[in-house]
Write a structure and sequence with these properties.
two-stranded antiparallel ribbon, 51% helix, binds zinc ion, 2 domains, rod-shaped, 132 residues
Length: 132
């Protein structure tokens, strides 16, 4: 994005800006200018933050799915990872692109826990009903 003349870098106040960060909209000078893998112009601060799809939400989803397939102890770990990922996205520390994956993992994991709890209650109830 071209920059209006007279704009300066917020970090180097005497240096004229050459670009606008495409993530936060701050002016960026030649020294602060960074390019993401996909060629997007970023400021130094945004470049330091993770971009693209996070591996954490993918891992969370994989753990929850493994839980579905019988590896039940992995489900709470997947839920915790998904929750951490969603918090990180809220704080702007993780890329929003992975939000859907994290939400899926969290939803699936919680459903699994609920189903497991129901099953347990059902089993206990059945045993009590049969006179233990
Ligand atoms: Zn920025
Ligand atoms: Zn600068």
């Amino acid at each position: 994005m071209p920059v209006a003349t007279g704009a300066t870098c917020p970090v180097h106040v005497a240096v004229p800006a050459v670009e606008v960060c495409e993530r936060c909209g701050r002016f960026v000078c030649g020294e602060c200018l960074q390019f993401a893998q996909d060629g997007v112009a970023l400021c130094t601060a945004c470049f330091a933050k993770p971009h693209g799809r996070s591996t954490r939400s993918g891992l969370a989803l994989a753990l929850v799915l493994a839980g579905c397939l019988g590896c039940v102890p992995l489900t709470p770990i997947g839920i915790a990872l998904a929750w951490l990922e969603l918090r990180a996205i809220e704080r702007g520390e993780a890329a929003a692109a992975s939000k859907a994956g994290a939400q899926w993992a969290l939803g699936l994991g919680l459903m699994q826990l609920a189903a497991g709890a129901l099953l347990l209650v059902g089993l206990v109830g059945f045993r009590l009903w049969n006179g233990g």
